[in-house]
Structures are given as C-alpha cells and as structure tokens.
Amino acid sequence: MKNLTAAALFATTALAALPAGAETVGFAQIGSESGWRAAETTVTRQEAEKRGHDLKFADAQQKQENQIKAVKTFIAQGVDAILLAPVVATGWDQVLEEAKEAEIPVVLLDRQVDSSEDLYLTAVGSDLEHEGRVAGEWLVQQVGDRTCNVVELQGTTGSSPAIKRKAGFEAGIAGHDNITITRSQTADFTRTKGKEVMESFLKAEGGDEICALYAHNDDMAVGAIQAIKEAGKKPGTDILVVSIDAVPDIFQAMAAGEANATVELTPNMAGPAFDALEAYWKNGTVPPKFIQTESKLYTQADDPQAIYESKKNLGY
Amino acid sequence: MTLPAGLARILPMLATLALLVAAISLVSPGFLDISVANGRLYGSPIDVLNRGAPVALLAIGMTLVIATGGIDLSVGAVMAICGAVAAKMVTLGYPLPLTLLAALATGAACGLWNGLLVSVLRIQPIIATLILMVAGRGIAQLVTEGAILTFSDPGFAFLGSGAILSVPFPVLLWTAAAVGTILVLRRTALGFLIEAVGVNARAAYRAGVNTRATIIAVYVVSGLCAALAGLVVTADIRGADANNAGLWLELDAILAVVIGGNSLLGGRFSIVASLIGAMITQTVNTGILLAGFPPEYNLLIKAWIVLVILLVQSPRLRPLLARRRASRQGTPT
C-alpha cells in the first residue's frame, strides 16, 4: 500500500480488492493538553493496532500551523485516510481541498470545523447537551417523587461544554417540579475550585438541604466530594453525586460509594471513525456527516473498581 | 491620643475588611456563624482564613520582593512545580519529611534562579520572573507527566485538610510563617536593609548594604512561600494539578500587597497589611460564592470592589476624604 498514486488510479474497485486492514491512516492530534486527550491518543493507537491498520501519528502541540503541516505531509505520503482532531474551527478550507483532490477521506474527531461539509467524510463526536440530559434523567429516576434540591458546579463560564451540559441537564429534569437547581456556580472544571465552591454551597444552603450535586466534569465532583466529607456529610448517600466525563478517579470514588453516577465522554472516537472508513473503503458507503458517540451512563452497579483498573493506564 | 504607628498603618485595611464583612452579612445573614463540625471549626469566616492561605503565604514573600522594588510573577508556577514534586515523591513512597524538604528545596532553588537573574544579570524583575512563570507550568507538567497526580498519604493530606485544636492546618501554617518572618525581619536589621534597597539601591550599596545578597534572599523567601502554598493546595485536593495549581495566584498575591497599601516602587513595607489585603480579597471571593449571583457576574463584582478599595486608598482621594471628615467634626481651637 505504499504506492497510493497507483491505488488512486485503480480507484475504489482496486481498493476493495485489497485485504481488509492493510490501510495506512494519518492521525493529526491536537496535542496532550488534558488527560482525556492523552487517553484519546492511546485508544486511537489501540484501535488501529486491533484492526491491523498502520497509524501515522502527528502531535500538533496546540498549534494549527503544525496540524496543517501534518495533514499536508500525510497527503504527500499518500495515506488512505486522515483522522483530524482540529485545534480550532476555522482555517481548514485549503488543506481539506487538497485532501479532497488527492481523494483521501478525512474524518474529524471530537471537534468540528467551519468548512463546507463536502470537504470531509464525516465527523465523530459527542453531543454535550445529550450528556447533560443523561445525567438529569438519571437523577429523575433516582429520586422519584421526593423533593430534591440540586446544586450545580458549572464548567468555565462561557465555554461550550458548560453551556450545553447545563442546558442538557435542565432539559433532563424538565417537568419534574420536585427537582430544583437551588445553586449554580462556576468552578472552572478544576478540583480546587470544585472543593471551594462546594464548601460555600454547603454553608449557604445548609448541608441537610442539598439532595444532589451535579458537576459538569468529574474533577470538580472529586473536589466537591472532599468538601462534603469535611462538612460531616456522606457523599453518595446524604448527597447524591452525578458528573460527566468518566475519568478514572471518579470510578475510585464510585467504588468507595462516594459518587453515584458519571456520563462517559468516550475517548474512543477512533472506533466509530474506523468503522465508517472501513465501510467506505469496502464499498464506498458514505456515512452521515455527524456520528454521535454513545454517552454511556455508569453507576455504582457497573463494578467501578474494574473500570478504574481498565482506564487508569489509558493516559488520563 | 495618637494611635501606635503600626496600628495606624493597618487601620484603613481593617476598616475596609470590617465594612466588607458587614456588607456580605447583609446579603448572606449566616456569614459570621461559626460552629464545630467533625472536630474542626466550620463556617464562612473559617473558609476565608483557610481558602486565603495560599494567597496569604504568597503575599508574605511578595511583600518582601516588592519592598526591594521587584516583583515575582513566577510564584503561581512555582506552587505547581513544588506541589508536583511533593506528589511525585509521596507516590514513589519516599517518607513525608524528605518529601516536604524536597518541595521546599525546589521552591528555594526557583527563588535562587529568579534572584540571580535579577541581581547578578540585572534583568528587570518582571521579565526575569516571567520566564519561570511560563516555563514553570511546563516543568510541573513534566513532573506529573501531564495527568493529575493523586495520592492518598494521610500525613501529606493533613497539610491541606487537617486541623490542630479545631483550627485548620493551613490557617496555622500561614499565621506561623507570617509571625516567624516578621520577628526575624523586625528583631534584626534585615527588614531595614530590604527597605533601604527598595528606596535607593545605589545609596544602600554605598552605605555598605550587600544589595546583591539582599535581593537574592527576598526571591528565595518568595520561592519558599510559594513552595508552602503549593504544598497546601496539593494536599487540599490530594492531587497535583500542574495545569491549575496556583493559576493566576501571583496576581492575587500582588493585589493583596497593593490593597495592603504597600508601594510597588519599593521601600517601606508591612507584611501584616498585606495579609489583611489577602483576607480582603478572599472575603470578596467567598462572599461572591455565598451571594449566589450568576457566575457571569463574579469577575465584574470583584473588580468593582477592588476598584472602590483602591480608590479609597489613593493618595489623591484620601486627603479629600480626610478634609471632609475634619470639617464635619469642626476644627479644634
């Protein structure tokens, strides 16, 4: 598969004749700014290996020019597909045109671009609003008809996960008047702030008045759990804790009974991307323009300790 | 009757703090309630003292650096480095005393680096310390390998969330650090030497002050204070978060020093006033959280309060306010 020009001449028929899993795929990753991003890289490598594809990896270190350079290199090398986790939404038209001219399908991972839809094959990502709704619906099921005052730890003010996860949760509890959000404050997605803001919630509302905590990410929940413990309350029992992301540490808290549920933002964006690519290579099936990953809900019933063990080495 | 000079110096800050507390109590009536829960004091005033610990610790070192006419922008990043070093060592199984010593040594080394850049290479302090401010987070990330490095050592966690005689440990730590520093500076000539360097470094040098050693020393103290603050925030969440530990706290520390009425041009300084400044900023933070405004307003409210405090202290406005007060009281004959 080294000579792509030849392969391109034979076009899809020739490609279809090749044994499955002999493809070369370029992955232009943003960098490793968060644990989740590192886990995404690890999982993408694992997926490629599992399916027998040759993965060429480029780390852009948070810079778009590096990423564009990487994509251009992949085009020059004549890879069979490019996975791109775009660092920003704009400025991709030209390089995506080049990929299109070279007939190399591009799959966007996790983030979107502002370019025309026909410049890429598909985008794989999670629906942030849906994640919030899953968390809200879990709480609705959990409390039934009981009155429940919820405190909310928001992500960084104005960031799209904070806005969408808030809106999603509110949609999830809509129509259940027994559940009300009594306090909502930003804690910048960090543990320290999560702890500090939860301390103030406990004082402002009184520990007995809070029935549940909803945090826009697990890190803030982990900080808040410590604040709840220090206030002499039992997190997970006295105050229900639900958050989003499913990072390893929250599973430890769930195993200890201190957190109740988390909604996964899966680092496995590559799996659905490879599925779509393999179908495309095989018989030219064009996938929908957005493939939504599953926002899986994990609770204490899902053997959190085992999930912790399986996740802790992914690089989170 | 005249007030003792020390008290007169900090009176405006104390008045500001009292007014602020009164205002917050109006918005959230339970603000001043203190009780004992779980063997430790519990209440918003305790939160202020406890959450204010990192900035209070930084403010001690920052006051001294600023008194020499310098500034230390690297303290937030140094916190992250020292926290990361401590968390790394504790997870590798080193004994706690060694871990703490290593973290403090790291902080001192960072301070030494800054001090050498400023005093020997004569790089302007704002640029010299900017280098470590930027590079420091990278160093911390290298130590933690990019992830939040968590640990469960109860001894280390005690530094952040333990209590002695119901008083949270961070509160004891920053008060002890402050008392120790003030005693050393004021019982010896060190404080005077620092002020001399800040007022006129050349004159101080001609008068026989070892200005180079003095400047290096204040940056080392600042690094040590940052190390303590880094240990507290790391122990508090039982994890070293290289990206967020101490983020922007250098600015809060400078703000505390300024609210404390210390001149950024150097010279006379008051650590107590800086500490009250730190408590004022933390009271604002805690008050905003308790008030329950939408988070979009947090920064605006904080900025307005800071602006008012600084306006009240401004050299142009203060005589105006004082004259008013005097005319209202009537001039004594």
TrEMBL record, chain A:
Residues 30-270 form the Periplasmic binding protein domain. It comes from the Bacteria. One of its GO terms (molecular function) is carbohydrate binding. It is found in: Cell envelope. CDD domains: PBP1_galactofuranose_YtfQ-like. Residues 1-22 form the signal peptide. GO terms for cellular component: cell envelope. The keyword Transport applies. The keyword Cell division does not apply. Keywords: Signal, Sugar transport, Transport. Belongs to the bacterial solute-binding protein 2 family. This is Simple sugar transport system substrate-binding protein.
TrEMBL record, chain B:
InterPro entries: ABC_transp_permease (IPR001851). This is Simple sugar transport system permease protein. The keyword Transmembrane applies. Pfam families: BPD_transp_2. Keywords: Cell membrane, Membrane, Sugar transport, Transmembrane, Transmembrane helix, Transport. The chain crosses the membrane at residues 53-86, 98-117, 123-144, 156-177, 213-233, 245-265, 272-293, 299-317. GO terms for molecular function: transmembrane transporter activity. It comes from the Bacteria. It is found in: Cell membrane. Its main location: membrane. It is a multi-pass membrane protein. GO terms for cellular component: plasma membrane.
